[in-house]
Amino acid sequence: MLQTSFILPNSSPGEIMVLTSGISQTTAGYSVAPQILDFYLIHFVISGKGVFSNSGQRFELGVGDLFIIYPNQLVAYVADNTDPWKYTWVGFTGSYAHEMLNAVGITEDLHVLHIDEDERIPSLFTNIHDHFQPKNNFFDLPTGAYLRLLLVEFRKIMEKNQPVAMITHQEGYSAVEKSIRWMVAHYNQQITIEQLADLMGYHRSYLTKLFTKYTGISPTQYLFKLRMQRAQSLLLSIFTIEQVAASVGYPDAMYFSKMFKKWSGVSPSVYRQKMRE
């Protein structure tokens, strides 16, 4: 089954315009012969498998993969013989298109991108296709808007997967230092690493890579260590186990006891007794 729409390019300077959008359940072995396009084209694999070739490079792709085609690249793709892929696509042009792709981290050398399970990307492709109605004189407004949102999602993926070396040593050190200060100030609250990452302006996985590079441990491990060391100190006081737990960010005393035993090898009450002997 093939659903598709296509119009001729008619973009003005500064615009990014959707030219083609569709979805296709291919048949076994269905192929697109080697071709060179004069616009940008991005496919997202919904199901099945296939092979994408770009400038002599061959990629075996499946569910969750994107393949990206730039103008003037020699490309071809073919569906698997036993599990042919179903994909959706969007093609676009415009004098600002190249700059926008660069801004989100996509370059001519990036041919394939994998997306973990994420409902936003497929839904944005669907929104583009649903609003792609050339009979409507204003169809380019919603399709252009959804395309921009799609590129924003690509940027989030690139930030998640980018190597730590992409930021300077000083920037990395500063981010880690601020992260530590924030955890020291808030370890007694029910904070999460997701909150920390949002505050620092990084994706959680990227912040974890960065933090580990400079400290040798992840922010989750650092926060756990910080809480347990403080708990050890508080257990030498007159506070109850429940009060100690609440003071280091654990509203559930039983869960705190489990975590403390994982840290020290003994329960909080046993630790307190040993320290008082």
TrEMBL record:
Does Signal count among this protein's keywords?
no
Question: Which keywords annotate this record?
Answer: DNA-binding, Transcription, Transcription regulation
InterPro entries named in the record: AraC-bd, Homeodomain-like_sf, HTH-like, HTH_AraC, HTH_AraC-typ_CS, Tscrpt_reg_AraC-type_HTH
Q: Which domain of life is it from?
A: Bacteria
Listed Gene3D superfamilies: Homeodomain-like (1.10.10.60), Regulatory protein AraC (2.60.120.280)
* Pfam families, sorted: AraC_binding, HTH_18
The source organism is: Cohnella silvisoli
Keyword tRNA-binding: yes or no? no
Q: Which CDD domains match?
A: cupin_MmsR-like_N
* Protein name in UniProt: AraC family transcriptional regulator
- Tell me which PROSITE patterns the record gives: HTH_ARAC_FAMILY_1, HTH_ARAC_FAMILY_2
Domain HTH araC/xylS-type, residue spans: 177-274
